[in-house]
Write a structure and sequence with these properties.
Layout lengths: L16 E8 L5 H11 L5 H9 L20 H6 L6 E7 L2 E7 L7 H8 L4 E7 L10 H12 L4 E7 L8 H18 L4 E5 L23 H7 L13 E2 L2 E5 L7 E7 L4 E3 L3 E5 L4 E9 L2 E3 L1 E3 L3 E6 L10 E4 L7 E10 L10 E6 L2 E14 L6 E2 L11 E12 L8 H4 E6 L5 E7 L4
Parallel strand pairs: 1-3, 1-4, 4-5, 5-6
Antiparallel strand pairs: 2-3, 7-16, 8-9, 9-15, 10-14, 11-12, 11-16, 12-13, 12-15, 17-21, 17-23, 18-19, 18-22, 19-20, 19-21, 22-23
Length: about 425
């Protein structure tokens, strides 16, 4: 069988850094997969191998190494045999460098998965082939797939794990591939690949397996080497959230006033006219500094100091954009959210909203809908209540005007978090939907 493979171009050139996150349900084999990638790509030091051989937490038979322990570093994780926090590992091949995050699969730690996925380019969603019955995927598989779509990850790789326990049955793999294709269609996930693997034994991880003559696609590592990394958003609209107003002295005639921060998107050059959101006041860029060095142009990702040709009222949390940008700040927005707090959403409470460098208070005016993870339907507003790990859409009103960028266009300024004012717990991760 030829598995559904949307990406087929494999070019030999160095492709840059790719940020990955593993996702899926508990015991799908996420930690073991990362360990196998590190082991088979020669990314493990000799002392690490010795430590794995000596550890008392090993869950493998005989002399086999428990590769999951390479990422499950917390003692609680090793004792319980589950991943609790996100663990980052780094490895490289001649074609690419990788930063891989091992996210927990347990529903209780979905917030950790959201944190890791927000910085990833690609999600590897594992499916335990032995736990799929009658084409019914596990809830966490659905939830993590929906989150990958909401967070705008450029690609999803679906790894059907533990195929060795099914004697590499091609029909079983076809059934799982069909079930995931239906899921992807319902949530609007377009860019994904699916392949059969055994993370424990190494089949189709780094090298093609002889056990899957019916699978015509590449092994996992070759696929990851070929996927395009996300590019810096240089061609997008300028967004420069001000982090700090820098003053030298304050009483001399040559008083210095600069605005420091990281360029979130776009480019900016000396001489360009910018405006401040939300005041709309404009000024021209007199000079730019990267560190202590003056430069003529900066771009997304640069940490800079900006000096204007006149002193205007700008403070931390303000956003600079080009003067001809038509966007206007708003206090009312709609957003998709993943509710992360153990306390359900309460419209009577006030929450702190953090967007970029701005922190303001916000009130949730209405829960517009809640997505049922089981049947992927949207509950009507009258029945919509968001509890921990629920995904839904809300309408909120903020005290201060916000940049209403759509997350799918400008994720750096189209995202925010909600914080409970009383407990200071992160209550939700939000993605603004300007088209709503």
């Amino acid at each position: 069988m030829n598995a559904r493979t949307l990406h087929t171009d494999f070019e030999p050139a160095q492709q840059g850094v790719l940020r990955l996150i593993t996702a899926g349900s508990v015991d799908d084999g996420k930690s073991t997969l990362i360990g196998r990638l590190l082991f088979d790509s020669k990314g493990i030091m000799a002392d690490q191998l010795e430590a794995l051989a000596r550890t008392k937490f090993r869950r493998t038979e005989g002399d086999a190494l428990d590769l999951a322990l390479l990422t499950d570093g917390l003692e609680a994780e090793r004792e319980q045999g589950i991943t609790i926090d996100v663990a980052y590992r780094y490895f490289s091949t001649p074609r690419r460098k990788f930063i891989v995050a091992d996210a927990p699969g347990h529903e209780q730690y979905t917030r950790n998965m959201v944190t890791g996925a927000s910085n990833a380019d690609v999600a590897i969603i594992l499916i335990d082939a032995t736990r799929v019955r009658d084409g019914q995927l596990l809830t966490q598989t659905k939830r993590h797939s929906m989150l990958a779509k909401l967070l705008g990850l450029s690609h999803v790789v679906v790894a059907v794990n533990k195929m060795d326990l099914l004697d590499w049955n091609a029909e079983a793999f076809q059934g799982i591939a069909g079930a995931y294709a239906e899921l992807a269609g319902r949530i609007g996930l377009q860019a994904y690949d699916i392949l059969p693997i055994s993370a424990l034994l190494g089949d189709n991880i780094v090298h093609a397996s002889t056990n899957t003559p019916w699978y015509a696609g590449p092994p996992l590592l070759s696929l990851l080497e070929s996927l395009p990394a996300s590019q810096k958003p240089l061609d997008q609209a300028l967004r420069f959230p001000v982090q700090l107003v820098a003053r030298h002295g304050g009483s001399s005639l040559n008083d210095f006033r600069g605005y420091m921060g990281e360029v979130a998107s776009g480019t900016l050059s000396v001489g360009e006219e910018v405006k401040v959101l939300a005041s709309g006041v404009t000024a021209r860029v007199r000079s730019l500094y990267r560190g202590l060095d003056p430069v003529q142009q900066v771009q997304a990702g640069d940490a800079i100091t900006l000096v204007l040709d006149q002193d205007i009222d700008i403070s931390r949390g303000d956003v600079l954009l080009r003067a001809d940008d038509a966007v206007t700040a708003r206090r009312d927005i709609e957003a998709d959210v993943c509710w992360l707090d153990s306390q359900p959403l309460n419209p009577l409470r006030r929450y702190l909203l953090k967007q970029g460098t701005r922190v303001t208070s916000a009130k949730i005016r209405q829960v517009l809908s809640r997505r049922d993870v089981q049947d992927l339907s949207d509950s009507p507003a009258s029945d919509a209540v968001l509890s921990m790990n629920d995904i839904g859409r809300i309408a909120l009103l903020s005290r201060d005007p916000l940049v209403p960028d759509d997350y799918s266009v400008l994720p750096s300024t189209g995202s925010f978090i909600l914080i409970d004012e009383a407990t200071h717990q992160t209550a939700a991760a939000g993605m603004i939907r300007a088209e709503a």
